[in-house]
Design a protein that fits this description.
Blueprint (H helix, E strand, L loop, with lengths): L1 H37 L16 E4 L2 E7 L6 E3 L4 E5 L1 E4 L4 E4 L4 E4 L6 E4 L4 E5 L6 E5 L14 E4 L9 E2 L6 E2 L9 E9 L4 E3 L2 E2 L3 E4 L6 E8 L6 E4 L5 E7 L6 E4 L5 E8 L9 E4 L14 E8 L11 E4 L4 E9 L6 E3 L2 H8 L3 E4 L2 E3 L17 H6 L25 H4 L38
Parallel strand pairs: 2-4, 3-6, 4-7, 5-8, 6-9, 7-10, 8-11, 9-14, 10-14, 11-17, 14-18, 17-19, 18-20, 19-21, 20-22, 21-23, 22-24, 23-25, 24-26, 25-27, 26-28, 26-29
Antiparallel strand pairs: 1-2, 12-13, 15-16
């Protein structure tokens, strides 16, 4: 009896383990199949298809096409160059980083333009040896003004127009954040831009639209632009080491309540087609609108072109604009060197809120000081000379040379005592007037004078 029970028990145990083994085997095989189906460690689950960027050939080099809105951070690597196909917006929350040495082409056929929207940023930090260049996609030798859009930056700093919209559908700008930060432009060159969308609707080389003082602008050139070289529409942005050459309209222009700072600027005009060196307005709609255009600018050289039919006034200040301008050299314009126009700006001068001082005005066609029509009742000459401005040759080295200019001053410039700039962390102490010292010709090396 006991043997029978033992045998039955043994059989039952064997059967039980056989059943457990079979169950374990089934589970193991099923799990393995499931893992294979999910990809496992050796074969990861495939993700979304990679984005293949379109490329074309420009100047014999393959470049990556940029088009549509950038809604996420993007870096333009110095391993490649890039082409703007149509308006490319860097949207709010996105940052476009551009590495030193990158060339960005604006496509003529589709009005390539780079626009930084409110809340977006551009971090374009070139170097003197590897500047960032934004230029036309036309072949070298065939380039000209107005072949692509240019660079537009929209910020949230105040404008006396409130929140408004830029020319050419370039987006909203303005707000109540004077310290707004739209990024960095350092050693950046903009060439052959300013495409005309319609009559009187052309883009500037760089348009700072409501851009705040948190933005850094240091060593920029705008060359051969169809409209103004650099224009500020309100805002508080500060600019240092800024060069504008060959602009078809004004070299530097502002309106709508710009209250920023500037130091070490140079403009050289090409007289085939040019307007004013400075055109400074508050608001044509309301001369008394606030905030009032009232920048503080030290050490500037403005060079007209007496050999050409165009190139109008050196400094035209009007429509309620105010500000402080010191240590300037203004020469070679075909009309007047300094014109304070409209009663609203006359009042700013009379009240001491518009000051031009410690500067040289020399060899401007219709007079160094005065209204070109001499009919507005304001005596620019008496006013300017009372603030330490003089009429004498600054002995600039080669200001009218369009191929190899040199804007450093000579003995005449050295004879004028410069005004001391504010000690506020932005301005540098100086011992010279004009935008370029004999010991630091910052306009060479990273810049261009090529006209096609």
């Amino acid at each position: 009896m006991s043997n029978i029970v033992l045998t039955l028990r043994s059989a039952w145990v064997q059967g039980k383990f056989k059943w457990l083994f079979q169950l374990t085997l089934i589970f193991t095989v099923g799990l393995a199949l499931a893992l294979v189906g999910c990809g496992g460690d050796d074969e990861p689950e495939p993700g979304p298809e990679p984005i293949v960027e379109e490329t074309i050939t420009v100047d014999g080099r393959e470049v990556v096409v940029l088009q549509d809105d950038l809604t996420e951070d993007k870096t333009l690597s110095s391993d490649y160059d890039y082409l703007l196909r149509g308006p490319v917006f860097v949207k709010s929350g996105a940052t476009l980083t551009v590495q030193p040495g990158v060339t960005i082409y604006g496509e003529q056929a589709l009005n390539g333009t780079l626009i930084i929207a409110q809340g977006g940023k551009i971090m374009a930090e070139g170097t003197a040896d590897a500047p960032i260049v934004m230029t036309s996609d036309a072949a070298i030798g065939s380039r000209a003004r107005g072949q692509w859009g240019g660079l537009i930056i929209n910020g949230k700093a105040p404008s006396n127009q409130g929140v408004t919209f830029g020319e050419g559908d370039t987006g909203a700008f303005g707000g109540n954040d004077p310290a707004d930060n739209s990024g960095v432009l350092r050693y950046v060159r903009i060439e052959y831009a300013g495409i005309e969308f319609s009559l009187d609707n052309e883009l500037n080389g760089i348009a700072f639209q409501g851009v705040g003082s948190g933005t850094v602008v240091d060593h920029v050139q705008v060359h051969m632009n169809q409209d103004d070289g650099i224009e500020m529409f309100g805002g508080t942005v500060n600019l240092k080491y800024a060069l504008v050459t060959g602009a078809r309209d004004d070299s530097f222009d502002w309106t709508d309540g710009w209250t920023g700072k500037g130091q070490f600027w140079v403009a050289q005009q090409y007289g085939d087609d040019a307007d004013n060196g400075f055109e400074n307005d508050n608001s044509s709609k309301d001369n008394e609108a606030t905030p009032r255009s009232a920048p503080t600018i030290y050490n500037v050289t403005l060079v007209g072109d007496p050999a050409g039919p165009e190139s109008d006034n050196g400094m035209l200040i009007r429509e309620g604009a105010a500000g402080t301008y010191a240590n300037f050299i203004v020469t070679g314009f075909n009309k007047v060197g300094l014109d304070v126009n409209t009663p609203s700006s006359h009042k700013q001068a009379d009240d001491g809120k518009l000051v031009v001082k410690n500067s040289i005005f020399f060899s401007n066609g219709k007079g160094n000081f005065g209204d070109e029509k001499d009919d507005d009742g304001f005596d620019e000459a008496a006013w300017a000379k009372g603030l330490g401005n003089v009429e004498k040759d600054p002995n600039l080295v080669a200001p009218f040379n369009k191929d190899n200019p040199n804007f450093a001053g000579g003995a005449g410039a050295a004879s004028v005592t410069p005004a001391a700039p504010p000690s506020d962390g932005f301005f540098e102490a100086v011992d010279f007037i004009g935008g370029v010292s004999s010991s630091n010709n910052w306009t060479t090396g990273w810049t261009t004078s090529a006209r096609n």
